[in-house]
Amino acid sequence: MTGNHKDTTLSRRRALAVTGGTVAAGGLAMAGLQSAFADTADTTADATDSATSASGECMTLMTSVTEGPYYLDGALVRKDITEGKAGVPLTLRLTVVDATDGCTPVSGAAVEIWHCDAWGYYSGYTTANPGGSAPAESEEGDSANDQTYLRGYQIANANGVVKFETIFPGWYTPRTCHIHVKVHTGGEKEDGTYEGGKVNYTGQLFFADDIAEEIFTLDPYAKHTGSYTVLADDMVYDGGGAASGLLTLKAVHKKDPSKGYKGSLTLGVDPDAENTGAGSGGGGTPPSGAPSDAPTGTPPGDSPSPSASASS
Predict the structure, then answer these.
(1) Any idea what DSSP says for residue 276?
(2) How do residues 149-183 score in pLDDT, each as one tens digit?
């Protein structure tokens, strides 16, 4: 994605970060956008997001959380990550700003997300049991690539904005509904993916319980039954609202949730920081048959084994 005007507020700190400058320890904070999306062109919405971020108060940098056991290298740079996976549409708009430099946009940051499908299965781990009772992932009958679906990168434009088209994630025991996110700087797009640089932040995005539970009554989500974990009982979400990754959500059609949602959040990063993905969060013993700290599925043969630091 590219912006319509040149960002003239690029500081030396951000220039070093985006081009692979010296790394220092740090973390990332998140602050929710103050207004829902307007039904306007992307360029207008991007400018609004940038103004909101720049005028808002930057929050204190927070500790990253675990990347979980289902991370895979080599995700594709693309806006639509669904690959035909069935589910309630979700348009996700994330704005990356430098919380150490007046919340200026971090142009060129690479935002990476990954999440499970409607029945709780991750690409690369399609035999990992999601807990409860769910059909096998192979029964979905879609044309998605089992190694790449619901994973992808987007490169922030001049306003620090990225946008993804995906589906509302499902759930698996013992986790609440969530999306994983990493913010990278200093690398570049190569062979359809993002290479080099460093990870500034590893986190997770969350959904309000009432919205998630309504979505899970719809098909295909309703075919996965069992005990859903609410936010207050989740092992990773710490109750901090937008600062802890809780998305601002707006229904496309208020009376018909199946039409989809638009989700937004501002990610306030320190572009000089480097994060390993180990983070915090996790713990607890999942029930028999549910995914544990090490997934039961088999990762793709040409991909490195994901971290097993905590439940994904």
Answers:
(1) -
(2) 999 999 999 999 999 999 999 999 999 999 999 99
Q: Residue 201, exposed/middle/buried by CB under 10 A (0-12, 13-18, 19+)?
A: buried
Task: Give mean pLDDT, residues 257-265.
Answer: 96
Instruction: Count Cβ atoms below 10 Å from residue 228 Cβ, excluding itself.
Output: 20
pLDDT at 262: 98
Distance separating alpha carbons of residues 195 and 187, to the nearest angstrom: 5
Q: Are 32 and 266 contacting, i.e. CB atoms less than 8 angstroms apart?
A: yes
Contact assessment for residue 215 and residue 257, using Cβ atoms and an 8 Å cutoff: yes
Instruction: Show Cβ contacts of residue 68 under 8 Å, excluding neighbours closer than 6 positions.
Output: 180, 282, 306, 307, 309, 310, 311, 312
- Summarised one tens digit per residue, pLDDT across range 42-93 is 433 444 444 343 334 555 555 689 999 999 999 999 999 999 999 999 999 9
Residue 310's nearest CA partner among 286, 288, 287 is 286
Residue 291 neighbours by CB under 8 Å, 6+ apart: 69, 125, 128, 129, 130, 131, 172, 173, 311, 312
Q: What is the DSSP string of 224-240?
A: SBS-PPPGGG-SS--S-
Place of tokens 């220092």: 24
Q: Is 171 exposed, middle or buried (0-12, 13-18, 19+ CB in 10 A)?
A: buried
Half-sphere exposure of 66 (CA within 13 A, CB side): 20
Distance CA 203, CA 76 (A): 19
Q: In the 8-state DSSP scheme, what is residue 77?
A: B
Question: In the prediction, which pLDDT does 243 show?
Answer: 83
CA distance 298 to 312: 15
Mean pLDDT of 29-41: 36
